[in-house]
Write a structure and sequence with these properties.
There is one protein chain. This protein is mostly helical and about 160 residues long. It folds into two domains: about 50 residues; about 70 residues, no CATH class. Helix content is about 50%, strand content about 10%. The protein contains six helices and two strands, in the order H-H-H-E-E-H-H-H. It is elongated and about 95 Å long.
Length: about 160
């Protein structure tokens, strides 16, 4: 009858006899575990990044965009700010609406010119996306009513233009 310690002794003898094989096996196991951990970390980071982007947009926000129809016989013009004003009337429970007009335009200060993405929005835009400023102020309802030439700069553009 064999003792229960005999298989352990045989395994220990084999490990000590074949040192290179043992070292390569241990190295393979360690690298395999490290690869699995790295892949899990990358996928978890990507998941968190995607959730952060969705959270920044807001789980309760809807973005409506106009596109030209490829269907023959269908003609509809672009959406207007009047269309945006009709949304709270047509859809119950809407808290805020802001049309967005996006253009790539040159922005110049002194001799510095940059091509930047410019968004034309209403003051409600800041509440919809939960935006805040570090200096100055956001757009106010008075800006919407009087239409002065005002803008809000992002931090990187402000540094680029003003130092």
């Amino acid at each position: 009858m064999r003792s229960p310690a005999e298989p352990i002794g045989v395994a220990a003898e084999a490990l000590s006899r074949y040192k290179l094989r043992t070292a390569l096996s241990v190295l393979g196991v360690v690298l395999g575990i490290a690869a699995v951990i790295a892949m899990m970390s990358v996928s978890d980071g990507a998941r968190r990044d995607a959730l952060a982007q969705v959270e920044a947009l807001g789980l309760d926000n809807i973005v409506a965009r106009w596109q030209r129809s490829a269907a023959p016989g269908v003609s509809a013009g672009p959406m207007t700010s009047g269309d945006a004003e009709q949304i709270p009337v047509l859809v119950p429970g809407v808290g805020a609406v802001s049309p967005v007009v996006e253009r790539i335009l040159p922005v110049t200060r002194a001799s510095k010119t940059s091509m930047v993405r410019v968004l034309g929005v209403r003051p409600a835009f800041q509440d919809i996306l939960h935006l805040s400023v570090s200096q100055g102020r956001m757009l106010a309802p008075i800006d919407d009513a009087t239409a002065p030439q005002v803008c809000v700069l992002g931090a990187s553009l402000a540094r680029q233009l003003f130092g």
